[in-house]
Each structure stands twice: as C-alpha cells, then as structure tokens.
Write a structure and sequence with these properties.
This protein has 272 residues and is an alpha/beta fold. The protein contains 12 helices and 8 strands. The protein folds into 2 domains: 160 residues, NAD(P)-binding Rossmann-like Domain (Rossmann fold); 97 residues, ProC C-terminal domain-like (ProC C-terminal domain-like fold, Orthogonal Bundle). Its main location: cytoplasm.
C-alpha cells in the first residue's frame, strides 16, 4: 500500500463491487486521503469515507499509481472519454465484464498498463475468486500489484490468454447465481416434500455450507466425498440416479448453463 498511499488511487464507479474492493483496501492500510472516487450516486457509506478524508467526485489527479474502472460496461465509452491527463506510470485495472483489453488499448494506447479482472460477488465477504489477465505492458510488477490488490477480497487466479476470461465469467463470475438458484430449488423441493419453508431453507443453506467446507484442494477427492455419502441401493443413490438419467442430465445441463453465460460474454465483448 506504500506506493498507493504515496501516488494515489482513483476508483471510477463505486457500486457494490467497487465498494467491496475499496472497503477491503482501506482495511489493509490504504489511506483515505490517497483515494479519489468518481461516483455520481454515492452511497451513505461512501459519503462517510469522504468525511474521513477520501476525495469524492474531485478532479482526477495526474499519474496516480492505480486507476480502477468499476463502471457498467455500457458506460465505459463515455467514462474513457472523460479520462485525460498524464497516466504514463498508472496501472489501469478494469472490473467491467464484457470490455476487452483491446478497447482500453485503443483508448489509452498500446503502452498503457492494463489488467482485466473478473471477480465475483463473494468478494463482498472477502471470500471471492478473481481471475486476472494483463496486456503486454502490464506483465511483471504491474500484474503482481494487481494480484496483491485483489487478494484482499479472496483468492486470485492468473490467466495467460484473455479469451479464457469468457469461460471464467461463465463458471465463477456467474457461478454464485447458480448456487443461489440451486438453494431456491432445494427449498422448493423441501416444501413439496412436506417441510415448512423456513426449515427447508435452513436445511438447504447449512447443508450447502457444510458440504462446501469439506472440499479440499484436490479435485479427485470430490468424487470420493460423493461416494462416501452414497450407499449402494440407498436414498442418495436413488437421488443421484435422477441426476444421471434426466434429459439433459446434470452434467449436460450445467455445461449448457456455463456455455450460455460464456457466449453472452463473448457477445458483449464484440459490442464494446
């Protein structure tokens, strides 16, 4: 944080994700006085940070250490048109889905240091997963700096091919919504089976949290965990048989879901 506190950070867009990132960085030693935030609709929390010294909707300082773009993709063209000045040493970090690095290079120049980040919403609890990919100018120390920043809100994966970001969006970017949808489906199934909604919700939630906690670092062990719950001819075996024999089966359905998100990400990138 020393370089950031010395040379400053600019955050353009401070909605849920921008606020989660900023809160984590402030918690890890980023000085309020070093931060400039541009946000037309500031939350009460952001106004509180301004009262502590954060610069809210002030002029963007020259050559900040980092400039984070956390606006909606459809606003990015307008936002980039408003960024003027000396950014020779600035690391640009974009958390906008669907906006490729080539767009930023066209706006800022090929020599600009650009890192594209795809976080997900558990970052709000510092339990997110973020995938990073950098252009040629941002390899090495700039990419490492971006990795350090994103580690404040969870785990980080480094990509070497920007095209992989679309699959990441389909899997982990949109993934929390799939989990939430599955919980909703479990609760509905519990109600159909005769349980009260509140009880069905607690059972579904706590089962999911507990099962997730059992997963370690080795993917091969996941199959063992599943098998340990599945007695031959038992209740779980009967349930998993439905997953396997449905049309489409569980694997095919999840693959189609991830592909739909990935394909939409590609479409948005082509529109940028």
């Amino acid at each position: 944080m020393e370089a950031l506190n010395k040379n400053g950070m600019v955050l353009i867009g401070c909605g849920r994700m921008g606020s989660a990132l900023l809160a984590a960085w402030l918690d890890t030693g980023l000085a309020h006085e070093a931060v400039t935030v541009v946000e037309p609709y500031p939350s009460d929390w952001l106004k509180e940070q301004a009262a502590k010294g954060l610069r809210l909707n002030a002029d963007i300082p020259a050559n900040p250490a980092v400039l984070i773009l956390a606006t909606k993709p459809q606003m990015m063209k307008e936002v980039m048109g408003q960024i003027e000045g000396d950014f020779a040493d600035t690391l640009f970090i974009s958390v906008a889905a669907g906006t490729p690095i080539s767009f930023f290079e066209a706006e800022l120049g090929a020599d600009a240091k650009i890192v594209r980040v795809m976080p997900n919403t558990p970052a709000l609890l510092k339990k997110g997963v973020s995938a990073l990919v950098a252009n040629k100018a941002a390899q090495g120390a700039p990419l490492a700096a971006a990795q350090d920043l994103m580690t404040a809100v969870g785990v980080v994966e480094i990509l070497t091919d920007e095209e992989d970001i679309h699959a990441v969006i389909g899997l982990s970017g949109s993934g929390p919504a799939y989990v939430f949808a599955f919980v909703e489906a479990l609760v509905a199934a519990g109600k159909d089976a005769g349980l009260e909604e509140d009880l069905a919700f607690r059972l579904a939630r706590d089962t999911l949290v507990g099962a997730a906690a059992m997963i370690g670092d080795n993917f091969a062990e996941v199959a063992t965990l599943r098998e340990n719950v599945t007695s031959p001819g038992g209740t779980t075996a009967a349930a998993l048989k439905v997953f396997a024999e449905s049309e489409p089966n569980l694997n095919a359905l999840v693959s189609a879901v991830v592909k739909a998100s990935k394909d939409r990400s590609i479409e948005l990138a082509e529109m940028a």
